[in-house]
Amino acid sequence: MGGTTSPLKRHSSPYSLTTKLFPYSLYALFLLLPIALFRFCFHPFSSPTNPTHPSSSSIGKVVEFCSYNNGRWVHDKMGPLYNGSSCGTIKEAQNCISHGRPDIGYLYWRWKPRRCKLPRFEPYTFLALLSNKHIAFVGDSMARNQLESLLCMLATVSEPNLVYTSGEDNRFRTWHFASHNIVVSVYWSPFLVRGVEKSDYGPNYNELYVDSVDERWTADLDHIDMIVLSIGHWFLHPAVYYQSGSVLGCHHCKALNHTEIGFYGVTRKAVRMALETIIERKGGNDGNGIDVFLTTFSPSHFEGEWDKAGACSRTKPYRRVERRLEGMDAEMRAIEVEEMEAARLNARRFNGRVRLEILDVTKLSLLRPDGHPGPYMYAFPFANGVHDRVQNDCVHWCLPGPIDTWNQIMLQVIKRWNVDSRRVVKLMP
Ligand SMILES: *[C@@H]1O[C@H](CO)[C@@H](O)[C@H](O)[C@H]1NC(C)=O
Ligand SMILES: *[C@@H]1O[C@H](CO)[C@@H](O)[C@H](O)[C@H]1NC(C)=O
User: Fold this and answer.
1) CA 87, CA 83: separation in Å to the nearest integer?
2) Active site residue 393
3) Which chain regions cross the lipid bilayer (predicted)?
4) What DSSP line would sit under 330-345, residue for residue?
5) Residue 272 burial (CB count, 10 A)
6) Which of 341, 354, 340 is nearest to 285 (CA)?
């Protein structure tokens, strides 16, 4: 740690996200809980995205098709594929063990879906299925968190070479796996649509242009074969929204003379805009096809104050019955699930050139209050005793940790797609 400012600077983004997020999460929760409860009564744990595969039995041995979002966490003595020393690409603030987190029980759980088994991540299978492809993670720091989990698991068998980096805090990066000629990249785009993030120099709120995609990632769409979208928490911040050149409304913006419209409708518009753009550009005759994942909202677990010890200090998962999906978590997930369903219908006309799947991780993540860095976002936070104030990250996930499961599920879907496409080929006369 060189200069006096660098450690602070390095940690500035999770810090500011957490600090500024917390009040708005609560605000959103209490303001919008009635709506969520209303929804819940009519669609209790509905899961519109999991149609039964018509011929799952014939391929049952190869790839089970099941609904991965319902299940429970069970003990697993195998533990993760990697650790904080063996993987060199973990963001420091999420390298919990190397930052002195004392309990390691949280590493020994696996997700058991209700009706099937979720296999451990198979790095060789992933690399084989995605040979010569470009996989892009697009979104906020949760997209990056998931990307870093994937890199660590792949790195156990093949070395990623960092070939490009740009932006504050390495927000745009690309790796190349020479063994299988695979490109993996991450694009910072916390709204998916064009946005100006609040800053110390500009306005103290975000500005979003809901009818205009963020060209920072769409400009590269031609070269992307698989895309993983992951957004959510940045929509909770104060913001002004623009559509068709005028102000649509704003959120948490008392000082401004605009109509408060909350953030759910805008989240929906942004997701829709992103999916429609991908489908249009990749599905048509000029497009070269694409596989699309949308990772659903990842719940945070603040139980106390964000800057006090114990903000998220649990060391075990919740049992399934202990927590139900509700409030903002449920609402954000529902928006993503619904928009993905609409996108799948929209993409049908392109005969499978655009494959879309929701990565429905909200519930399984909700059950893991033990998986966050908490105070270990900083190295050895209690080295000089427990102080009054300690910053906590109860939003992102330790690596290794529960977020590895997201990529396990993603691989199962990719395997199923591969089997499906082979079957199509075989059926042809
Ligand atoms: C991390 O993993 C490496 C490689 O598997 C192993 O050699 C090392 O002992 C592990 N370190 C810890 C602290 O578990
Ligand atoms: C706020 O908007 C209202 C309605 O458009 C307008 O009448 C009023 O003058 C505005 N106030 C300020 C301070 O701009």
Assistant:
1) 6
2) yes
3) 21-40
4) HHHHHHHHHHHHHHHH
5) 20
6) 354
Cβ neighbours of 30 (radius 10 Å): 11
| 86 C-beta closer than 6 A to ligand 1 | yes
The domain segmentation of the chain, as residue ranges, is 72-427
Record the tokens describing residue 224, joined without a space: 């992307």
pLDDT at 307: 85
Tokens of 309: 């010890």
Structure tokens at 278: 């991908």
Q: Is the CB of 83 under 6 A from ligand 1?
A: yes
Rounded Cα–Cα distance for residues 118 and 111 (Å)? 7
CA distance 71 to 320: 7
Note the pTM of the prediction, 2 decimals.
0.84
Coil vs helix vs strand at 90: coil
> Is residue 400 reached through a cis peptide bond, with omega within 30 degrees of 0 on the bond before it?
yes
Q: Closest Cα partner for 252 from 22, 410, 414?
A: 22
- Residue the block writes with tokens 């039964």: 52
Question: Relative to the CA of 85, which ligand 1 atom is closest?
Answer: 1
Of 287, 421, 254, 275, the C-alpha closest to 342 is 275
With beta carbons less than 8 A apart as the criterion, state whether 211 and 119 touch: no
How far apart are the C-alpha atoms of 113 and 328, rounded to whole Å? Answer: 24
414-424 confidence digits (pLDDT tens)? 999 998 776 65
Find the DSSP H helices in 65-181. 123-129, 141-154
Do the beta carbons of residue 188 and residue 140 sit within 8 Å? Answer: yes
The residue contributing the CA closest to ligand 1 atom 3 is: 86
> Looking at the domain covering 72-427, what would its CATH class be?
alpha beta
How many beta carbons lie within 10 A of that of residue 350, not counting itself? 18
Residues 6+ apart with CB under 8 A from 226: 130, 133, 134, 135, 136, 290, 291, 292, 293, 414
**212 catalytic, yes or no?**
no
Q: CA nearest 74: which of 423, 405, 330, 339?
A: 405
CA 249 to ligand 1 centroid distance, Å: 52
